[in-house]
Amino acid sequence: MKKGFFEKLKELTGAKKVRMGGYSAAACVLAAAIGVAVVIAADSLPTKYTRIDMSGKNLYNISTETENIVKGLDKQVDIYFIAQSANKDEIIDQMLQRYASISGNINYTVQDPAKNPNFASQYTDEAVEENSVIVVCGEKSRYVAYSDIYKTETDYSTYSQTTEFDGENCITSAISYVSSDDNDRLYLLSGHGEAELDTTFADMLADRNAEHEELTLVNAESVPDDADCVIINEPQSDLSEKDVELLENYRAKGGNIIVVTGYTGQDMTNLNKLLSGYGCSVEKDLLLEGSMSNCIQGMNYYIVPNIEQHEITEPLINENYFILTPMSIAVNETEGSSASVTPILQTSSEAYIKTNSESAQTLEKTDADPQGTYNIGVVSTLTTDGKESKLLLVGSSGFLTQEMNAAVSGGNGDLFLNAVSWMTGREEGIAIHAKSLSNERLSVPESSAGVISFITIFLIPAVVIAIGVYVLVKRRKR
């Protein structure tokens, strides 16, 4: 019996449905397979690519400096987060996961103190706070307290409290400490009225696992062999000939020196003798800045120098930091040395040296005051019999103080730490800043406030009403 047209069409349609159903099933299977593959691939990526920091302050993102240190680990480092699941600080947890995602040598574990109350006691005698961290490598360990990760300080000028998240600095410092075979040792020269190292800078060194102590050369036969660097911080009188001899011997062995010396009104003949071997010297008279763009307003003896390119200044330039050098003196480059000298801090071309500063009646420039671009800071490298010695010289009193450092958001401290790192060859010496938890307020200039008010109060509502009227009229015409 012959099939009719509609019966044939029905058969064809049915066959097409079967084929289309098969295609759909295959497409679903393929999509599922792709989805599984994407999930597996994403799971293998570092957490910085798969988890976005939604804090708005990059609290658990970590810096390039930390990444370089962690990637360079050649030992297994265990990080234990002491926290119960219900009370776990998510910011610290996320940050520690990022450490573990960078290197296979980082093993991250959460330890519940309720389930294992004696765990922390094998590493520290302190009363362990919840949400604290213990970092272990071999026989060495460091306990990082929760109160060190979140630092609260009081600003007595405003009687307000500020809280900062210092997690990255604490954890990176702990990793560097436990994974290092030895720590840097710095000596602070004394006996010439030198300033003590400010607590802020001493803490910076401790965070970078560098030890420091005073050094008196009066009865010494040499600078200690374990000295990675000698710091001469604001001497008020000149060095002795013996001091210079011992420091020159130390330099010849590859020893490093940091000199911070500002205006004192004293002749520093022997200090300049030491510096001449590095190809530099310091002036006696006060250096003043003639450009208001390079000093604190109204105080031309508080100079904000231009930062020149060098390994230790590059991070500051990249992050747009400033340096503050109060009570400065000019640093000269001298001839007769094989050292390589690089200026890193310079005045504007409007700066001038106040001739006979001790007896000067005014700080304003006179015809007797030489004007020009002067160095305030230089670095120098001197090689003797194949041994390299490095120098940082900054011509400023108060450069290594908390007040000056805070005025430029840590710029002075960064330069100091970067110099120590450059001298000792330790990348972990690079400064890592704490992150403020304070809410930032939106400041609107007065000139813009009227425009913003007009737009939000009048213009936007007027546009909305006009659109509504237009739509209503158009509908009524239909």
TrEMBL record:
All residue ranges annotated as the DUF7088 domain in the record: 58-146
One Pfam family linked to the record: DUF7088
Keyword tRNA-binding listed: no
Alphabetically ordered keywords of this record: Membrane, Transmembrane, Transmembrane helix
Transmembrane domains' residue ranges: 451-473
KW Repressor (keyword) present: no
Name used for this protein in its record: GldG family protein
The species this protein was found in: Candidatus Ornithomonoglobus intestinigallinarum
Source species taxonomy: Bacteria, Bacillati, Bacillota, Clostridia, Candidatus Ornithomonoglobus
